[in-house]
Amino acid sequence: MEKSHPATGSLLPTCARLPTMSVIVYRYDASPFSVKIDHVLLAKNIPHEKVNVANMLPRPEITELLGVTYRRIPILAIGNDIYCDTSLIASALERRFPSSQGYGTIFPNKKHGGSADTGLIKAFAKHWVDTTLFPLAPLHLPWQKFPPAFIEDRGALRGGKINVEAMVAQRGQSLSMLSTHLSLIEEQLSDGREWLFDTELPSLADISVHFVYAWVKSFRGVESLFDPSTFPKSLEWLARMTGYLGRLKQSQPEVRKITGKDAAARIAAAPFEPYSTVGFDTREGERLGLKAGDEVSVAPDDSGRNFGTVGKLVALNREEFVIETKGSAGLVRCHFPRVMFSARPATKSKL
């Protein structure tokens, strides 16, 4: 049995699109980064299931059952391998579910010939979108309406107490910077290209920029930012991307929800990629003062840096750290990106 891809129209064997092992994403609906990974999964046409978690701690489905104390959402499991941070999740999904096996791609070829600028797109998504552009957006959340517990939780994530009045006072500056960044998108689209890196279909770059501006567009008080006389091509691109994702969503089955308990049991019992797939780069290990088997704590360098995940370092290359962690459900392998993450020897308890 064959089915056409909604974006390309090409025929793909149905069996080729079924994952060799389960894919489970831990998310919550209001999380913009969860939406980003939802869209990556849509673009790649990967069947998966989801565990809906709370929008703040505690999250026993992750911390207790899996032994993963990484603070941010989403995380995604492929079999027994758990991937943290959307940059590594996107990279892992592309590698493990390649277009050669009938899946979509987030790095399509250029429209006029040649392969996508894969490395540049990854750097663009991580360093410009996630690190520079996205932090401007949360200032427009309705902080005055949030309960104290939520504000305290987000303060812990940021590594300091949140001053609501100060956040609100920065909205004008944020709008100005969002406008400045949007002018760069307008410039990129000025030659009439359909997608940001002139690819045949949307790439990770389009997904990454879209999730930020689509989220901002949902807030009150930002209407002046989306001025069609100022950013005509950008707003056309934003609408085109929204329509593209909407068509993909209509063409794919609804994502099934499962409980954290069921998900953890399946993840713990599932096979994992051999450690040799990532390998252990001894040169990188020496540079970092780490060796295979070390007990380490891995955490982001920015938000969530006080919520390190501790485990045995089993693999390391220039893209990722892999550690073994153990929760009440059993042993799992937890992957973190190298970019903007650090692994340090775990502090030993004096007890």
From TrEMBL:
It comes from the Eukaryota. Residues 21-101 form the GST N-terminal domain. Transmembrane segments: none annotated. It holds the Pfam family DUF7962. GO terms for molecular function: transferase activity. InterPro entries: DUF7962, Glutathione-S-Trfase_C_sf, Glutathione_S-Trfase_N, Thioredoxin-like_sf. Keywords: Transferase. This is Glutathione s-transferase. The lineage of its organism: Eukaryota, Fungi, Dikarya, Basidiomycota, Agaricomycotina.
